[in-house]
Amino acid sequence: MAKIKNDATGRLPLMGKVYLAGPLFTIHERRVNRELARALEVELPALRVMLPQDFKHDDRFNDQKAFGLIFKGCIDGIDESRCVLAWLDGPDSDSGTSFEVGYAYAKGIPVIGIRTDFRLNQERGVNVMLSRACNAFVYRPSFAEDIEGLAKEIARAIKKVLR
Question: Which sign does the torsion angle of CA 128, 130, 133, 135 carry?
């Protein structure tokens, strides 16, 4: 992957897409994913955050007939991304997110782990197979409840891994 150089203004040029992997099953998860995506796009205006929760077919979500297309859409989304942001909260990280981390790692696509959960596990609060697959890791315990602050830290990590 080519290194990104700052332009004359000191800003990064067009960054492209990043894929936000994370749980997307509850209204809380979906809203927080969207809020983080918006905050990241404010921090890095040249960035487009792909949310798999928006992938639907025939104007329907979670349709068994479309599961193959949804799977392919997620794989294609990761393949099109400059990096993957992996939300790794919970006592055990989401299984789909864990797969997406492994896939990105195997393809050589940088992964940034995100954890706001203050519960501990093996390493960095997660299973060692996930922590070691991450090129960067943002740990910001949930006590701050500050999506914008989290987005700033993730933006710094994105700049770092894409340089």
Answer: negative
